[in-house]
Design brief:
The protein is an alpha+beta fold. Among the domains are: 109 residues, 2-Layer Sandwich (Phosphorylase Kinase, domain 1), CATH 3.30.200; 170 residues, Orthogonal Bundle (Transferase(Phosphotransferase), domain 1), CATH 1.10.510; 79 residues, Alpha Horseshoe (Serine Threonine Protein Phosphatase 5, Tetratricopeptide repeat), CATH 1.25.40; 89 residues, Tetratricopeptide repeat domain (Serine Threonine Protein Phosphatase 5, Tetratricopeptide repeat). 59% of the residues lie in helices and 8% in strands. The chain is built from 30 helices and twelve strands. It has a six-stranded antiparallel β-sheet. A two-stranded antiparallel ribbon has the order 7-10. Strands 8-9 form a two-stranded antiparallel ribbon.
Length: 669
């Protein structure tokens, strides 16, 4: 291991030690994965675990706790996971098994490589020239496959990201900085010899190509440059550049040091070509580089490295890949995996269940139900399929059927925390809040860190008017999952007033499309007299859901208070376009028209409101006022008398004044 790498790792260990990660050596994740070692990088953390269910070691990667609140960190990790999962199986690439959310944080499960990395070999004199060439050809095989499969640029090639098994099989790892081309209508063609172009600096300074420092386009040839440095190190046992200049100057201007070891002239030429400053002078792809290295290996050993065919994915791997894609939000691609698995074995109940999950995420509820039913036909005691079927029934508003499914899941597995939680949600929606609380307590007895159950329990307590207890539950949910936008939203509802605004803002920071948070934030701002800011929130609500009736209505009211009466009329018209029988919208449109001096149209609006609700006090008194001003005293009298007849107690303060108006009108009439 090089001195700089040692220093870098020590810094990372110190930085990592300051962070309170949720798992430590000796812990057992999900009651299954026992942690034996922990490795940290600049961004990620890898738990080396033993899987007690499958009786095998594996590596579980996520991002470090200090990035927990960063949406960019989540997006970057999701991109890395997606890249890795889509690479499927290749002998020279570390295999991603699946992706799972554990306590609301994404983790990627990887095959464990026990032999260490190339860093461990470089300075221990374990590498002779034939073995170095063997490793180099294997590396090219893996990279060539990655480009053919996904047109992928790794962008962080270095010895630490090249792992070696005990039988000297090389495995490329760490796709955290990798960029893979996503097919879009604008990008339908890719050059045959250069992978999809990306720009921007990324990588490890020791191995970054010159173009990565200058902001020029980055493609496959940047990886070839980085591997040229690795190849030099494997052959020479040292770094190719004198380390006097700054990194940028070194890569842009310095010439590689001469290799002192006696190596074939052809190999020296290969290394020099990889390290050319101009990308156009390097090898243009790993296929061409592999051809050269394979010839050198043959000349040295008289043997050829047989390239094994790409391994076929087995049915369980297809199923796991589908689950991973589903967890990463790639539902259509998940469906393709499950369909392939079911082609191999039409009676694979797990794939029917998981296909149903992908269809549910695509809001194809009837198709999802058919899949769950198929899974249950194959295995009637499949608790997960009963649970998922219950979720679809709940989505469809069929609450009794949903309860029957959750009960079936709990009959099979009484410790199914998710089923207890969702049964509670269904009972809560049926108004059975006390019964719902018992379900949430059951879920939390099984899993005290079930953030959704804490959040749901808070909602049930809120419905029962137990606000302080509800707040304690929301705080517990947020302690477990600080990025639970729904818990922040619900906490805001429980707090009300100015304290609520901070919670809604937190929910919107996490999920900028949380329509209820925008709407309720608008309401709180309006209650505080901040009508201009409220209008902005209602606009955001309507941008997400243009048919949000209450947002149109409340925006109209806020505009009335801002004196923007014509704009308010437009909002009330929008409400009435969606729901022509909204009596409040008719009445408030009438108020706006009165202020605009359009009295006859205003009377027509009050009449429409009263046709829908003859006891609507505000419409009755406002209609009476307009008619009185128009001199239509007989009609005004009738409207005022109906107001007195139907006015609820809150209008008692107005009744004497209206009675006096009636007496005056009767004298005139």
């Amino acid at each position: 291991m090089g001195l700089l790498d040692n220093l870098r790792r020590k810094k990372e260990d110190i930085a990592g030690a300051d962070e309170q990660e949720r798992w430590q050596i000796g812990d057992i994740i999900e009651n299954r994965y026992e942690i034996h070692d922990i490795k940290r990088g600049g961004f990620g953390i890898v738990y080396i675990c033993y899987d007690h269910e499958y009786k095998m070691p594996l590596a579980i990667k996520t991002f470090q706790a200090r990035f927990l609140h960063s949406q960019k960190a989540r997006d970057d990790f999701t991109r890395e996971s997606l890249t890795w999962i889509k690479l499927d199986k290749h002998k020279n690439i570390v295999k991603a098994i699946y992706v799972e959310n554990i306590e609301y944080q994404p983790y990627i499960f990887l095959e464990y490589i026990a032999g260490g990395n190339l860093d461990d070999w470089l300075y221990t004199k374990m590498l002779d020239l034939p073995l170095a060439m063997n490793f180099a050809v294997q590396f090219c095989n893996g990279m060539e496959y990655a480009y053919e499969k996904m047109q992928l640029i790794h962008r962080d090639i270095k010895p630490g990201n090249i792992l070696l098994t005990s039988d000297k099989t090389l495995k490329i790892t760490d796709f955290g900085l990798a960029k893979a081309r996503e097919t879009t209508p604008e990008m339908t063609e890719v050059p045959n010899d250069i992978s999809y172009i990306q720009s921007g600096p990324a990588g490890t300074l020791l191995y970054m190509a010159p173009e990565q420092f200058t902001g020029k386009e980055i493609d496959t040839r940047a990886d070839i440059y980085a591997f040229g440095i690795v190849l030099y190190q494997m052959v020479a046992g040292s770094y190719p550049y004198p380390r006097k200049s700054p990194w940028k100057e070194m890569h842009l201007k310095e010439s590689p040091l001469s290799i002192k070891q006696n190596i074939p002239r052809e190999l020296n030429a290969v290394i020099q070509k990889c390290l050319e400053k101009e990308p156009g002078r390097r090898y243009q792809n790993f296929r061409d580089l592999k051809v050269k290295l394979s010839k050198i290996y043959f000349d040295l050993t008289g043997e050829r490295i047989i390239e094994e065919p790409t391994e076929e994915i087995e049915i369980w791997e297809l199923n796991d890949k589908g689950i991973a894609l589903d967890n990463l939000g790639r539902y259509q691609e998940a469906l393709t995996c499950h369909d392939k698995a079911l082609e191999i074995n039409p009676r694979f109940a797990e794939s029917w269940n998981n296909k149903g999950n992908a269809l549910r995420n695509l809001v194809k509820y009837q198709e999802a139900l058919a899949c769950y039913n198929k899974a249950l036909e194959i295995n009637p005691r499949y608790a997960g399929a009963w649970y998922n079927k219950g979720n679809v029934m709940h989505d469809l508003g069929k609450y009794q059927e949903a309860l029957a499914c959750y009960n079936k899941a709990l009959e099979i597995n009484p410790r199914y925390a998710g089923a207890w939680n969702n049964k509670g949600n269904t009972l809560d929606e049926l108004g059975m809040h006390q019964e719902a609380l018992a379900c949430y307590d059951k879920a939390l007895d099984i899993n005290p860190r079930h953030a959704e159950a804490w959040n749901s329990k808070g909602n049930a307590l809120q419905n029962l008017g137990r606000h302080q207890e509800a707040l304690a539950c929301y705080d517990k949910a947020l302690e477990i999952n600080p990025r639970d936008d729904e818990a922040w939203y619900n906490k805001g509802n429980a707090l009300g007033k100015r304290e609520a605004l901070a919670c809604y803002d937190k929910a919107l920071e996490i999920n900028p499309r949380h329509v209820k948070a925008w709407y309720n934030k608008g309401n709180e701002l309006s209650n505080l007299g901040m009508h201009q800011e409220a209008v902005m929130c209602y606009d955001k609500t309507l941008e997400i859901n243009p048919r949000h009736v209450k947002a149109w209505y409340n925006k109209g009211n806020a505009l009335l208070k801002l004196g923007m009466h014509q704009e308010a009329v437009i909002c009330f018209d929008k409400v009435l376009e969606i729901n022509p029988r909204d009596d409040e919208a008719w009445a408030n449109k009438g108020v706006a028209l009165v202020i605009l001096g359009i009295h006859e149209d205003a009377v027509a609006c009050f009449d429409k409101a009263l046709e829908i609700n003859p006891r609507y006090s505000e419409a009755l008194i406002n209609k009476g006022n307009v008619l009185s001003n128009l001199g239509r005293n007989q009609e005004a009298l009738l409207s005022y008398k109906n107001f007195i007849k139907f006015a609820p107690p809150k209008y008692a303060v107005y009744i004497e004044g209206v009675k006096e108006t009636i007496r005056q009108l009767e004298e005139i009439v």
